[in-house]
UniProtKB/TrEMBL annotation:
<feature type="region of interest" description="Disordered">
    <location>
        <begin position="159"/>
        <end position="180"/>
    </location>
</feature>
<dbReference type="GO" id="GO:0016740">
    <property type="term" value="F:transferase activity"/>
</dbReference>
<dbReference type="GO" id="GO:0004040">
    <property type="term" value="F:amidase activity"/>
</dbReference>
<feature type="domain" description="Amidase">
    <location>
        <begin position="84"/>
        <end position="499"/>
    </location>
</feature>
<keyword id="KW-0808">Transferase</keyword>
<keyword id="KW-0378">Hydrolase</keyword>
<dbReference type="InterPro" id="IPR020556">
    <property type="entry name" value="Amidase_CS"/>
</dbReference>
<protein>
    <submittedName>
        <fullName>Asp-tRNA(Asn)/Glu-tRNA(Gln) amidotransferase GatCAB subunit A</fullName>
        <ecNumber>3.5.1.4</ecNumber>
    </submittedName>
</protein>
<dbReference type="InterPro" id="IPR000120">
    <property type="entry name" value="Amidase"/>
</dbReference>
<feature type="region of interest" description="Disordered">
    <location>
        <begin position="49"/>
        <end position="71"/>
    </location>
</feature>
<dbReference type="InterPro" id="IPR023631">
    <property type="entry name" value="Amidase_dom"/>
</dbReference>
<dbReference type="InterPro" id="IPR036928">
    <property type="entry name" value="AS_sf"/>
</dbReference>
<dbReference type="Pfam" id="PF01425">
    <property type="entry name" value="Amidase"/>
</dbReference>
Length: 519
């Protein structure tokens, strides 16, 4: 319930804007603000009809939170069974979603206890389209979220640590940690993750799964939130097979009108499967020199051996250099601080666009940000605080430059991709690191802030969040019991070519011969 603020409250708010009001001036402001708030309250309470929230029709069972006996890898925040259409591209497939994705009637926590009780009445576009394509939705997966997480070795997170099915003592990677664990342990066919700097591809790399970050805008982000700058945030399928990744992309990709980030260059529908099994004879593959910087011996040799498999399939191989690959991370760092702060200030699903706004979700997250910040991820808070100081010291120039120079980095990769069809490099330059339990709360906060694991993990992934090029993580083989992954990167909207190359490789490579949790 609102109330008219008194003059002292008005003075306090004015000081946040850098103004000092006298008591008399504040009284004038308070009267005007009170009139405005009264009009707002009348509007909120009015019975103006709003459009029905977008969702797939039909009954839904309430589902349940699984116990340890039903969730041995701590992969799930919620399990359910929502049947889709009787036929379609995903008929017979089970699908789950990282718990930053709205599924009508199912809890949505964004990885935070503070948001328990939030149950949206709408479906994210990827959920609705999966159900329309015949999939059965079977639950929501644990994630690194608004309260931190354990995917990168952190010691703070409300829903615990998803364990790596290949080796429980090693990390799953984040932020789509639970999705990767559920897939690698054979509990689901397809899981849609989220990727802000590699958060689909890193867990795919460390758990031996397929992870696809589509071209920017190709898959609608409506109904999905994370708190990152919207221009680097993606959703995409994680799977155990390339064929499932292609089918999931085709079922969900395309323009939908709810995601304001989708330009009209995004097609209404996307064909990812009709040429999937065509050969790759003559495909030009470029080994990105800078993508191997800092790679372990095991990762370096495994990825180079994987490239030889492509050569045996008829691809031509060459070395390619993109010097900007080594410096692009600074641009994204500059973007993320003020970008994350802007999301907080504007509302969890942004502003300014003519679309459908999930008001209950926006209000719930805003209340948590306003009243329960101590319960949330210290690293995310530090990033938003850096955004405050960035604006204070540079008056918005940092963010503006980070957006404006993006085209030059895109052009650098595009030049390389004019000479080759696909760039290859390790997805991550290390295999899954071992998890180390922090000794106390201070050590856990230090772990949350520490970047050594995170920065090495994102070295080859986050550049393509910033540029928008499609990128696909593909398992090569196991070394010392842990997976190694190769990343394929292509031209904008040529996701189908990456999938075709990956399918041919997967049919040939040693990795195809073992199940996910075999040693």
């Amino acid at each position: 319930m609102y109330r008219t603020p008194d003059h002292e409250e008005v003075q306090q708010v004015a000081e946040q804007f850098g103004m000092r009001l006298t008591a008399a001036e504040a009284e004038v402001f308070a009267r005007h603000i009170g009139e405005t708030l009264t009009e707002m309250d009348d509007f909120v309470q009015s019975r103006i009809e709003e459009p029905a929230p977008p969702r797939f029709p039909g009954p839904r069972s309430p589902g349940h939170r699984p116990g340890p006996e039903d969730d041995p890898y701590n992969a799930w925040t919620w399990k359910c069974e929502i049947p889709g259409a009787e036929s379609g591209l995903l008929a017979g497939k089970t699908v789950s979603f990282k718990d930053h994705t709205a599924v009508a009637g199912m809890p949505l926590t964004f990885g935070s206890f503070a948001l328990e009780g939030l149950v949206p009445d709408y479906d994210a576009t990827v959920v609705q389209r999966s159900l329309e394509a015949g999939a059965t939705v079977v639950g929501k997966n644990v994630m690194n979220g608004l309260s931190g997480g354990f995917g990168f070795g952190g010691g703070i997170g409300d829903y615990g640590r998803p364990t790596n099915p290949h080796s429980p003592d090693h990390l799953t990677g984040g932020s789509s940690s639970g999705s990767a664990a559920a897939l690698a342990s054979g509990q689901v066919d397809i899981s849609f993750g989220g990727d802000q700097g590699g958060s689909i591809r890193i867990p795919a790399s460390w758990t031996g799964t397929v992870g696809h970050k589509p071209t920017f805008g190709l898959v609608s982000h409506f109904g999905i939130g994370f708190g990152s700058d919207q221009s680097i945030d993606y959703t995409g399928p994680m799977t155990m097979t390339v064929a499932d990744a292609a089918a999931a992309l085709e079922a969900t990709a395309g323009y939908d009108g709810f995601d304001p980030r989708q330009g009209r260059q995004v097609p209404d529908r996307y064909d990812a499967t009709s040429r999937l099994t065509d050969g790759i004879d003559g495909l030009r593959i470029g080994i990105l020199t800078e993508g191997f910087a800092g790679a372990t011996v095991e990762v370096d040799s495994s990825v180079r051996e994987a490239v030889e498999i492509f050569a045996k399939l008829g691809a031509t191989i060459s070395e390619v250099s993109v010097p900007e690959h080594a410096t692009i991370g600074r641009a994204q760092t500059a973007l993320m601080a003020e970008g994350g702060l802007a999301v907080r200030n504007a509302g969890f699903f942004g502003a300014w666009s003519r679309t459908w706004y999930p008001s209950d979700t926006i209000a719930a997250v805003n209340r948590v940000w306003a009243s329960h910040q101590e319960l949330l991820d210290p690293r995310a808070l530090a990033n938003q605080m850096a955004g405050v100081f960035s604006k204070r010291f540079w008056s918005g120039r940092v963010y503006a430059k980070a957006q404006n120079v993006r085209s030059s980095f895109i052009a650098a990769y595009d030049r390389a991709l004019s000479e080759v069809d696909v760039l290859v490099m390790p997805t991550t330059i290390t295999q899954a690191p071992r998890y180390e339990q922090p000794a106390d709360r201070t050590a856990a906060v230090e772990l949350a802030m520490k970047g050594s694991i995170t920065y090495s993990a994102v070295a080859n992934t986050r550049p393509f969040n910033y540029t928008g090029h499609p990128a696909l993580a593909l398992p090569c083989e196991k070394r010392n019991g842990l997976p190694v992954s190769i990343q394929l990167v292509g031209r904008m909207f040529e996701d189908d070519l990456l999938l075709r190359a990956a399918w041919n490789f997967a049919e040939t490579a040693p990795f195809a011969a073992y199940t996910a949790i075999d040693a």
